[in-house]
Amino acid sequence: MDKILMNSMRFVSHSGVLEEEKKNGQTFVVSLELFVSEIPAWKTDCLSDTIDYSKVFEIVKNTVENLQCDLIEYMAGEIMKNVMSAFEEVEKIMVRIEKPLAPIEGDFESMGVEITRSRNDLEGRA
Fold it and tell me: How many domains does the chain have?
């Protein structure tokens, strides 16, 4: 199985449990792993034989920046659903979302979640 990696994409979203997060917004750092049975571009050197990273980036950007939700777990699910809807060849997806400025007192790099689901896991999701 082949994997496409998209690491540490940064977006601003007005999501979060606290009212100040919804009002002021904050940076979310999103990484993806897209699992595909085979990426033919390793043989052909053709963009049409792989997943166009710029299109995936735009899907993630639009999802994160336009979605207002409480939990990053839900945001990850929406990213998974939107990417899988756009790219039939993606069999499994991992989404990692980190909040470097999570509203928690203490010394930390980020708080986050990582969720991996197959296409079958997402079927029937509302």
Answer: 1
